[in-house]
Every structure is written in C-alpha cells, then in structure tokens.
Amino acid sequence: MSSEEMSTTSQGTKIVRTTTAFDCGGRCPLRLHVKDGRIIRIEGDDAPEPEQLRACLRCRAYRQEIYNPNRLMYPLRRTGAKGEGKFERISWDEALETIASELKRVKDTYGNSSIFLIGGGYLGALHSGMRATAKLLSMFGGYTTSYGNVSSEGSVWAVMAQYGSVMVGHSREDFLNSKLIIMWGWDPARMISGTNTMYDLIKAKEAGVRIISIGPRYHDSAATLAEQWIPIRPGTDTAMMVSMAYVMIKEGLHNQEFLDKYTIGFDKFRDYVLGIEDGVEKTPAWAEEITGVPASAIERLAREYATTKPASLMDCQGPARSAMGEQYNRCAMTLTAMTGNVGRRGGSAAGGLMGIPIGHMFRSSGIPGMRNPVEAGGPSIRGTLDLGLRLVRRVHINKIFDAILEGKTGGYPADIKLAWCVGGNPLNQLGNTNKAARALKDLEFLIVSELFVTPTARFADIVLPVTSAAERNDLTRPWPSGPYFTVVNKAIEPLGECKSDFDIACELAEKLGFADFNTRSEEEWLRSFVEENPETGEQIKDYDKFRREGVHRVKLAEPIVAFKEEIENPEDKPFQTPSGKIEIFSQRAAELNNPLCPPIPKYISTWEDRNDPLIKKYPLQLLSPHPKNRVHSHMNVDWLREVEPHRAWINSVDAEPRGIKDGDEIYVFNDRGKLAINAWVTERIVPGVICIFEGAWYNPDEEGIDRGGCVNVLTNDAYSEGGAAALNTALVQVSKA
Amino acid sequence: MQIGFYFDQTRCTGCGACQVACKDWHDLPAGPENWMRVLYSEKGKFPDVFVSYMVAPCYHCLNPVCIPACPVHAISKRAEDGIVVVDVEACLGNEECDVKCLKACPYNTPQFGPEPGAKMRKCNLCLDRWSDNKLPVCVEACPTRALDAGPLDELKVKYGDIQEAEGFVYSNRTKPSVVLKPKRPKAS
Lengths: 737, 188
Prior knowledge:
The complex is a heterodimer of chains A (737) and B (188). By secondary structure, chain A is α/β, with parallel strands linked by helices.
C-alpha cells in the first residue's frame, strides 16, 4: 500500500495510524499528524472504550526521539580511539565495502565463528536485527551469537520446568474476577505489562478487589493500588514464599486435592519446607531473619492467600533477574498450585511472564531464518533445562563481553574478532559495563547499526544510520499480550541518509555476492507475515484494512485463563511437561544434579546477598528496575527527563549517616565501577537498598567515574543456573560526592 | 457556562503522560514552561508512607486573580466557556512586569520560558480541540483515565462536588473550576 492509501488527510495534515517497535511490553496505537513531510503532533488510540489502548508517556515523547538533534544522519567511520567518540562521515558505498571486506578478512583469517552478531531491542517482524542480518550472515557461512535475553531468562526457565509453556498469563480484564491480587515484585505503572494493565488493575481495585504489594520499593503501582505494602529485602522473595507454604501446610490450608490431581512432587517440596529434607524448618521466623518481613505478616498473608478464592499471585521478572532468580518464579507457581488458583478465572498461574497466546511477541512472524552453519552439529536443545547445552555453540547474553576477552581458552565457543550490533546498546544494557568497554577495545572490528551514537557505538569502527519506526513499514507485537495485533506504518521519509535494517542487509548482500538474498519487496513480506502466520492468518481477513487502521483487536468472549483446558480436561489436555502435570518436582532439573538448580524450588543464599562477607565493604543492595523516562536506553529525550530526572532512590536511614541530602550528588561504587548520580532521599525504599533505573547512558570521565549514571557499571556479568542475567544481585557502597 | 477539569487523585500514578502530551500538542520545548504539571507529595516514615500526585494545569478560576494583576490587560476570561486565555502579543514579558500574574496566582499556573523577556503562556484547556469534539489532550492521554474535562456543572453531576485533595487547597478567593476525587491516607 502507498502511504496515501493508509492515511487520511485533513487541512493539509495527514494522519498516519501506526505504533512503535520499542522493546516494550505495550504496543500502543498512535496517530501521527504529518504536515509537509514532518510529524508535528502525536495522538493516541481513538477507539471507543473499553477497547481503547492508551499509550504511556514514552510514546507521547516519540517526536523528540525521531527528530532528536543527535540522530545519526549518515554512515560514520571512527577516527579517534575506541570509545572516544570521534568519527568522520563516509558514504554508504564506502561503509558497506568496508564491512564486506572486513567480514571476508575475518572469515578467511579466523573462520566464521569469529563473527559475532548481537541483536537488539527493536521488535519488528521485518527489521529486527536478528532476522535479515542473521540470514545474511548464515549465507556468508555463519556466525556466533548469544543465547537468551537479558530480561526474563529466570522466569522462562522456571515456567518451562514447571508447566512446559510460556503462556502463563490471563487476559487482564480477568483481574476483575479476583478477590485478592498479590503484586510480588511487579510495578506495571512503570514496566508496561500489556498496554492497559495498570488501568485494568485500577478497575479491579475500584470493584473492591483487595491488592497487596510486596517488594523493596513502594513504587507508584503500590502507591496507587495497594491496601498494604510488604517491604522485603531483594533476593529473599523465595524465602518468604517458602515460609508461606510452611504456614499453609502446618495449618492444612493447602488444596491437597488439586495437588494430587494436577501436580507431581509436592511431597518432596513439603519435606523441604518442613525441614524433613535438611533439618531446617522454614518457619515464618526463619523467613523473617532473611527477608526482614515480620513473621506475623507472613502468617497473615499465607492465611489470606490460602483462604481467599480466587486469588491472583502476580510475580514478575525483575526479582528473577538475580543470582537464584528462577527459584522465585518456581516457588510462586508452587503457591498458586497449593491454593488451587491455576487455570481458574480470577486466579493465576504465576511464572512472571504474563503471556497470553493471542498477540504474543513469541508468535510473531519474520523473514524465514536459515540454518546457521556455525551452529551445525551442536547438541539438541529443544525442551532442555540444561543451560550448558544451550551454551555449547552460543554465548550467554550476559557473558558476551567476557567471551570477547577470554575466547575459547576461557571456555567459550569462539574467539570473537568482529562483532555486528544491530539496534542494541549492549555495553550499556548488560552487566559490568567497564568490562564491556575493555572488551569492545579488544575487538578487531565493530559495526553498530543505530539511530544514535550510543555508548556502544562510540567503540564502533563503522556506525550505520538506521531509520526509526516512523520511517519504515513493519509488523510488531508487545512482549506478553494482546489480544491485539499492530502495524508500523511509515509516516515520513527516512531522515538524512538513514536506511532500514532490512535494506542494509539487502545492499550488503549484493556486495557479498548473494544476488538471491532477498526475493520479496517490503510490502510482499509484510503481507505474507500477516497471511501466513497461524494467528493473524486466522484473525485478520482484510490485510489492507489492518494496515490502514494500524491495529486489529480481538474480541474475547471470555477472559483468557492460562491452563484452563489443562485443568478442565486433564485427560485430554496434559501439561506440556514430561509428566503431563505441573512439575513442582522436575526430573529434568534433578538430572542436572546441581544443588544450585534443585528439582524443587528452594531458597538459596548467594554471592552478594546480605550473607556475603563483602557486605562489610559494600553494605547496600542494588536494584536496577526499568526506567519510566526511557525505554531501556532508548528515548533518552528531554520531555521524559524532565518528568523524572535520573536519580538514585535511597532511604533516609541510609542517607543521613552518610551526610546525604535529597538532591545531593553521590557516588555509588563497588569493585566493578563507580558512578555519579543525584540522590532522591525517600521513605519508599527498604533501608539497606539503593535503586538506580537502568538505561542511562554510560559516560566515564578521565578517572573512570561514570558521569552518566549507567547502573551496569555496578552490576555483575553473571547469570543464574537457569540463565537469568543476575543484574539485581549486587552490593555497593554510597558516599557523598 | 464554565468549563473545568475533573481529576481522580486515586487513579493518578504520577506517570507524566499528561504533561508530555501537553508539550507535544502545544509544541512546547523542554524546560520550565509546563502548561500541565504533576505535583508530588510524600508523607510519613518507612514503611508507613503516603504518596499522592496532583495535576496542576490552569484551573480557569471563576474569579481569576491573574486578570487584574496584569498591567496591560493581556489576560481575559472568555464569556462563552470561562476559559482564561492570554494575549501573548500584549504580554510585557517576564522581566518588564516581574511576573505579576504568576505572583497573584495561588497555583503557580502562569508559565514562562527560560529566556529573558519570555511571554506568559499557559494551559488554555486545549481550546483548539473542543471545536473538533476532542477533549484536552491531557485528558485523552491519561493511561489510567484519571482526568476529564467539560462544563463544571456536568462534572459535578457526574463526579460529585468535592474540590479538595491532597496537595491542593481550594481558593475561595479565585474559585478554581475543578472537581476532585481526593486520595486519602490509609486508616492504620
């Protein structure tokens, strides 16, 4: 379709219905007002309520991203030292020739495995970096890449162990059917978990549903929704859950009938909880010591959750982004089974992912991949819980930089010499940024495709300017949920010399001699993605209408409830686990024979928690939640910065002895790095914890102090046994600057 | 007729979508000129904390004290809808008159850019949108539907006549055109 066909024009202003493709859990319809080829205003969805999908502040500031004075307008070649940020303008032809010749040189000198592809946070069917570029590199003989995502691997491992499925969510209107909602480490006002989720929770609250929030912060979701806030120390959620199970078992409040019918291994979990396995009774008093939550509060919550039916326990992914992260989601799921809330309206299956099977990102179409020759002959990884098998040919996402530094002698699958980073800012967004900076200096060649000279791009040899989603057509989905499908419609011509990732791959393919790389036009691809996808093929009969309207909403006759069929018809519809049941005990996990990854969920103390002797030197636990004034490291724009300046949450109990007053500049540091940031002294965070939102741009001074406040200079490039990037496990000290 | 705002303080998460949408619609640069502000209040000590937000557009008072404060009569109240508007051309600017309107307003509504001589501008209830049957952009932007706007009489029928909230004091002198649903501290 031409852009004229899919837009309406009034008084010289064209309205383009579209959305963005940021790495976000919402996907909100937008109306871009375009006049004289320029976007002059943005409005949101205009569908009648209750179907309206309202955008948050981030997309409201989209114009400042698109027309940012720092947008890259032409290809760059580095002229200064790596990281220095000095570049000169070059032509596309020269940029692509240089890339082609470097790819050939590295392939000929070291082999294809030395070429590394790093994906990013653009979630589009056509233009995602891991699609066209990956196909091209496969045709070129292959490449090494990362395994996993930095957000949710703890939760993914946990749900695959417990349920064998990632579709663990309910459509959000089902909150109205709950009697009690427990938000455990979940802040949907900030971390968009489906476009209208916060509004749906407000409607539930107003309908009389009691809401309790558990977490180290009294965040805006808690402040808006919760009748009760239960503050808890980071990394200790599982201990509290285990002791809630203790109360339920001791008082006979658990649903034994449900457990007998639908689960396996509850007896082993019970033996652990009661101390039969290890001699330690997991009493509320035991948990109080660890969590800081009074035993009486744990007892009350256990009774309330066990006796209020139905109740929705909503865990999330943030607490699972930790050294023992998967245990938290596994234990939450076990509590939902103990209370018989799985597969039930108004209940929940927990698991942290909240995905529903209509409109889920995981079921999006894209350019068909090609077998990557570098990964040929690797072990079969389908369905495995053994992370080691997944890392035979790939590098864990939080170890990319360690792999660059250590190579095969460090146990990694390749000696990485060239990296291509497509639409991501890994230096900034993965653990241990200072190590990442050392690693990027170690590379022979780095290509970055981006909209900006990001902290990662400062190390690049060639930077390619890429179009924003306003300058190209695509299909995109939110992370966890529809039930709707959205389109990215091109609103304006590419700015400067920007090209789409798809076009870049096509043009480079020509330089590399792959005349048959692409067989379809952008339009043909998009149409095929809609028509050939099992979901959209079924749901969307009029492709042109879908493009014009930018969104297709699916009307649900009743709320989607995860595992409803498995619970209603267990004979015909077993769970997708080896046993066909909810696996509180996982034989696949048992076979790993790893005490840090046990077959039943357990609370396990870890490095850099409050038991680590390191706490004497670095006495504060660090959290790095999603920012509300950015989309990760994207949307670093003034309109959002002035809504919420980048600052560190610190309790007055921790601030006062250090002489820190609200607004003071402080240093936050540990052995991995040191950053400067302003303090926000607040009563809304547990004493002993400091919170710095991720995504602020790394900007080290001559002494190596990060003046940008990039929290990952403090986090560890470690992962849990299930594969979670352990970014919420870190100890730091704070001083007044 | 008097048009005004409704604000449900219990629904406000302080996200700032209203503020950003306002800046986008009216094409306001980043900086001190904010036609829609979101004020923050935190009370109590850990763990008993009370948090609330209060939106601060122009409340288009029934008795706008900014009007007589202006030495050049640049501010006026429209007869047809009570919207308080400013004639930016007539305004003397922040230096010449020393922001008399801002000093008069109990809600700090009049806004000035950072530059010397900046003229006063402020929320005009999205005058340009009413003719297209659209509510003010802040209202349509609020993700939790905490805002509404319309004839004050109708808002009172729909939402009640409470005109107080945390972080807001009703001025009997100026009579702001706003109806509120206040957030109350939890009974402990």
